[in-house]
């Protein structure tokens, strides 16, 4: 079965320190991977995606993610965390069983990032 | 500005009552989706639509219904058959069917509707 796992419910990091939010996936075929961020009572905002090409993907707000095919991982990273980065982060993979050109996504449970001053 | 508009932001439903959540997009996207978000469970797909007058059940369609009469609109009705409707509902869209790059393009989300049963 296709799935996305975010093993940490919460990640705590001090402002200015690097942060990592972990994601592993299970999907048949080539994965199409996404990271989204959600602020309280708001919708999801797109951060970055991996479709093909370089394993290190750069996205919005200084975030990047590293695709590792052998470990089936797509961890989100940022070199220096800000208090304003505190939010709920979702990793998602496109459902490879979906036909057509639409983007049916399978989401992880989310990881709450808390950045402390 | 292009985007997805969900209304209302907050909605209260009495037991046994049907309610309809609105989702409108002006991104000219073909595909639209409804997700339900519960604490600690991530997002689960309720229904999705690839083109006008077509839609498919997602993973948790029971107790919900949708229509897609216009490209821009994809309303979701939460019926009285949905036993636990209190949740945060998110609508999304993507370029979708027949657009070639559809699979490579991220989905765009609305700001959500919080539904509470009272």
Verbal overview:
The complex is a heterodimer of chains A (117) and B (118). Chain A is mainly β and 117 residues long. Chain A is 0% helix and 50% strand. Chain A has strands spanning 3-5, 10-14, 19-21, 24-26, 33-38, 44-50, 56-58, 64-68, 73-78, 87-94, 105-107, 111-116. In chain A, strands 2, 5, 6, 10, 11 and 12 form a 6-stranded mixed sheet that branches. In chain A, strands 3-9-8-7 form a 4-stranded antiparallel sheet, with no helix packed on it. A two-stranded antiparallel sheet of chain A has the order 1-4. In chain A, a hairpin with a 4-residue loop joins strand 8 (64-68) and strand 9. Chain A is globular, with a radius of gyration of 14 Å. Chain B is globular, with a radius of gyration of 14 Å. In chain B, a hairpin with a 6-residue loop joins strand 5 and strand 6 (56-57). Helices cover 0% and strands 44% of the residues of chain B. Chain B starts with a strand and ends with a strand. The mean pLDDT of chain B is 90. In chain B, the strands form 2 sheets. In chain B, strands 2, 4, 5, 6, 9, 10 and 11 form a 7-stranded mixed sheet that branches. By secondary structure, chain B is an all-beta fold. The A-B interface holds A 4, 9, 32, 34, 36, 41-46, 49, 51, 90, 94, 100-105, 107-110 and B 4, 6, 30-31, 33, 35, 40-45, 48, 50, 58, 88, 90, 92, 94-112, 114.
Count of helical stretches of chain B? 0
Would you list the SSEs of chain B in sequence order as H and E? Answer: EEEEEEEEEEE
Shape of chain A: globular
What is the overall pLDDT average of chain B? 90
Helix content of chain A: under 10%
Number-wise, the strands of chain A total 12
The gyration radius over C-alpha positions of chain B equals: 14 Å
N- to C-terminal distance of chain B: 35 Å
Secondary-structure content class of chain B: mainly beta
What is the share of helical residues of chain B? under 10%
């Amino acid at each position: 079965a296709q799935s996305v796992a975010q093993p940490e419910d919460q990640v705590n990091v001090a402002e200015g320190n690097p942060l990592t939010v972990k994601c592993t996936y299970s999907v048949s075929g080539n994965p199409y991977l996404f990271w989204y961020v959600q602020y309280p009572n708001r919708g999801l905002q797109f951060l970055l995606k991996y479709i093909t090409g370089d394993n290190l993907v750069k996205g919005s707000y200084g975030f990047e993610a590293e695709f590792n095919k052998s470990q089936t991982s797509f961890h989100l990273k940022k070199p220096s965390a800000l208090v304003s980065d505190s939010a709920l982060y979702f990793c998602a993979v496109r459902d490879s069983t979906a036909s057509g050109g639409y983007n049916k996504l399978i989401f992880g449970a989310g990881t709450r990032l808390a950045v402390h001053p | 500005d292009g985007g997805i508009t969900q209304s209302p932001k907050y909605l209260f439903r009495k037991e046994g009552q049907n309610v309809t959540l609105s989702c409108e997009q002006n991104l000219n996207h073909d595909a639209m989706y409804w997700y339900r978000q519960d604490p600690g469970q991530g997002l689960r797909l309720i229904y999705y639509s690839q083109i006008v007058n077509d839609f498919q059940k997602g993973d948790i369609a029971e107790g919900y219904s949708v229509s897609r009469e216009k490209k821009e609109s994809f309303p979701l009705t939460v019926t009285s058959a949905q036993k636990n409707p209190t949740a945060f509902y998110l609508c999304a869209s993507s370029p979708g069917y027949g657009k070639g790059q559809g699979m490579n393009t991220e989905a765009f989300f609305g700001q959500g509707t919080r539904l509470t049963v009272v």
